[in-house]
Amino acid sequence: MTDTVSPEKRSEIMRAVKGTDTTPEIAVRRASHAMGLRFRLRRNDLPGRPDLVFPSRRIALFVHGCFWHGHDCRRGARTPAVNADYWRAKIGRNRERDLSSARRLAELDWNAVVIWECETRQPARLSAILRMRVADVGCQQLDAQGGREHLDTVQGYREAPCSIPPPKD
Question: Any bridge partners for residue 112, and if so which?
Fold first, then answer.
């Protein structure tokens, strides 16, 4: 199957693809904030430049586009018919870079968490995923450290499965 638009138009379309402040990323931010999770955006000093960072939990969260990072969902599994070798190589490089970033974060005692674009479409499901991947990981780390006093910056979080005390009013 050939492309239905001219190469110039395709180039224009691809240049318009954003790398930051995407719809899935904003959905994750809103859900995190609604749960009381406080975060920082795009810490340049961390490997991979995570989309959201939860410093007190030492969690670096990446919001990955299914196509661009080769997810195994319907959207991520498709390969463009035109220039397929280029796209397979590009997506392969993205996956290798993601793995390398996760390894480097682990060496710095940070947890890398990935939220896929397809997981952001349903708000209730996204909240459950965030609770499982961010809140539970944070609680496991705190239990391993032997205390929860490190959570003074996580204010207002009341839904965690571990007993994080609510902030003092």
Answer: 60
Q: Which tokens sit at 150? A: 């490190």
Q: Using CB atoms within 10 A of its CB, is residue 153 exposed (0-12), middle (13-18) or buried (19+)?
A: exposed
| DSSP tally for the chain: helices H, then strands E | 7, 4
Q: Report pLDDT digits (tens) over 14-55.
A: 777 777 778 889 999 999 888 888 889 988 889 999 999 998
pTM of the model: 0.72
What SS3 state is found at 64?
strand
- Joined together, the tokens standing for residue 114 give 């990935």
Q: Report the C-alpha gap between 145 and 83 in whole angstroms.
A: 50
CB 46 within 8 A of CB 100: no
Domain 10-151 bears CATH identifier 3.40.50.720: no
